[in-house]
Amino acid sequence: MTERTTLAQTAVCAGIGLHTGARVRMVLKPAQAGTGIVFERTDLDVADRLIPARYDLVRSTDLGTTIINADGAAVSTVEHLMAAFAGLGVDDVLVELHGPEVPAMDGSSMPFIELLEHTGLKTQPAPRRAIRILKPVEVSLGGRSAVFLPSLQPAIDVSIDFDNAVIGRQQYRFEISPAGFRSEIAAARTFGFRREYESLLKAGLARGGSMENAIVLDDEGVANPEGLRFADEFVRHKILDAVGDLYLAGAPILGLYQASRPGHGINNVAVRALMADTSAWKWVAMSEMAEAVEPGRAARG
C-alpha cells in the first residue's frame, strides 16, 4: 500500500457508547490526501469541533482512549475504530459524531471493518509515509512495560497475565497485514469482570456495557452464552487496542511493538516517548519499504 487511501463513499452507522450508554450516530466521509483521521463533534456548539486523531491530544486512557482539542471538544473510546482504519490501511477520513463516544458495536473492530469493506476504499495520488523504528525505545508504567524495536516486518507482540482461570497467561505475536488483521485480530472483543461492574458505574463508566458488546467474566467463567470467538481472545483484543492506539502516531509504525500487560495508558506513553526521540525513528515512503522487503518487485509491476 504505497498511496494514501480514503473511503470511496460516505458510510453511516449508529450504536451505543460503551461507557456513556448514549446512542450515537456516526458518519464516515472521504477526506483529501494528507488530512489524516479527524473527528468532528457535530452536536457541540464550540468554535472548533474538529479533533485530529493524534497521540498528543490524548487526555484520558481510563478503560479507553479519549482525545480532546484546545476548545474542549472530546471523543472517547476511539481505539476500536482507529484499529479498523490501521488494519485496512485507511489514511484520510472525516468522522462525524453526534455524541461524545464512538459506538461500541459488538466490542471489537469487525463491524467497522465490514462497514469499510462495504463502503469501499480508494487510493489518492499522494505517497503513503510510515514511521520506521531505528533504535529501541522502552517505557514502563505501573508494572507494565513496552518497547519499540527495529524490525523489517512490522509486528505487535503482547503478553498478558490475569489472576483469572479463564485468562491466565496469554501471549500472541501479530505480524501486521490487512488480511491478518481481519482474520486474527479484528473480531476479538473487549472484556470485563462482573464483580467490577458496580464500581465502574459509580465512576461513570460502562453504562452501555453488556454481553452484546463485551466478554463478561464472572465466578463461573465466561458469562456470554456464545462463549469465546478465539481461545485466546483476551490477548488478541489487547493487540487490537494497541493497533488503534499506535495509529494515533499519525502513520503506520514500521517496527516491532513488544508489550507486557499493556493498556491504553502505556500504549500512549510509548508513542509519546518514541515521537519525542527523533533519533529513534525517521519518515520513510511506503514505496521504499516495499522495495526493501522484496527487491525488484516495483520494477516487475
From TrEMBL:
Keywords: Hydrolase, Lipid A biosynthesis, Lipid biosynthesis, Lipid metabolism, Metal-binding, Zinc. It catalyses: a UDP-3-O-[(3R)-3-hydroxyacyl]-N-acetyl-alpha-D-glucosamine + H2O = a UDP-3-O-[(3R)-3-hydroxyacyl]-alpha-D-glucosamine + acetate. GO terms for biological process: lipid A biosynthetic process. Gene3D superfamilies: lpxc deacetylase, domain 1, lpxc deacetylase, domain 2. GO terms for cellular component: membrane. It is an enzyme of class 3 (hydrolase). The keyword Cytoplasm does not apply. Pfam families: LpxC. Pathway: Glycolipid biosynthesis; lipid IV(A) biosynthesis; lipid IV(A) from (3R)-3-hydroxytetradecanoyl-[acyl-carrier-protein] and UDP-N-acetyl-alpha-D-glucosamine: step 2/6. Its cofactor is Zn(2+). Zn(2+) binds at residues 80, 237, 241. It comes from the Bacteria. The keyword Hydrolase applies. The active site is at 264 (proton donor). GO terms for molecular function: metal ion binding; UDP-3-O-acyl-N-acetylglucosamine deacetylase activity. Its EC number is 3.5.1.108. Coiled coil: none annotated. Belongs to the LpxC family. Catalyzes the hydrolysis of UDP-3-O-myristoyl-N-acetylglucosamine to form UDP-3-O-myristoylglucosamine and acetate, the committed step in lipid A biosynthesis. NCBIfam families: lpxC. This is UDP-3-O-acyl-N-acetylglucosamine deacetylase. It comes from Glycocaulis alkaliphilus.
